What we know:
By secondary structure, the protein is α+β, with helices and mostly antiparallel strands. It has a domain at 1-43. It contains 2 helices and 2 strands; from the N terminus they run αββα. Strands 1-2 form a two-stranded antiparallel sheet. Strand 1 and strand 2 form a beta hairpin. The termini are far apart. 0% of the residues are buried.
Amino acid sequence: xxxxxxxxxxxxxxxxxxARKGGLVIGGVTIDPNGNITIAAxxxxxxxxxxxxxxxxxxxxxxx
Length: 64
């Protein structure tokens, strides 16, 4: 006798849809044996990854 599924595709689709509407870039989805759905953030290309002007001041230049 097989165990009943602890989640459905609609549960996963609902979770992913909500994360996307919240602005999250989906990197992956994991479902544990208990049916808990975990959504991992993917890489974000945008202002968060732009260089900070203070980086040049606080980090010494690499020798050439």
